[in-house]
Amino acid sequence: MNNRIITTGKLVYDPHRQDFRKTNKTRTLIVQLPRDGLDIYYQWFIRKQFGENAALQRPMFGTHVTIVAGNEHVPNMSMWKKHQGETVTFEYGPAVRNHWQFWSLPVYSEYFQELRAELGMKREPDFHITIGRQYDWQPIHRKARRRAWEIRLEEEGELA
Asked: Is 114 within the bounds of a domain?
């Protein structure tokens, strides 16, 4: 069963880090989602399920999908900023997951893979919408740990 949601966002190269004094000098490409409170909406469910101690920091670039992370090497810089401001459509799944200190929703887009290939980069196995980051002092609840492949198998009905 496909429970995916279709949405749009804008491609932003080297985005400004909101509410941060330090700026990130590395190359980053994100899809900026509209400021519609999607992160706050899902954070409410996380607190409801795991308690008030599961309060999260909002994402540093706002609600977004990272296509190229700041720590990645971009071999083909001649294509950098080619699609600046372009509106893109993609799908995401509603199953919240936790990885490291981040909470996110899985994203599905072949176009994002094409953008990485255009920049001379390898495929990304795990695009996601960042919902928030846990504070360093918060323990991660064992039931919250869900990997992208587990969510995909659940969606396809192969993991019960």
From this structure: yes
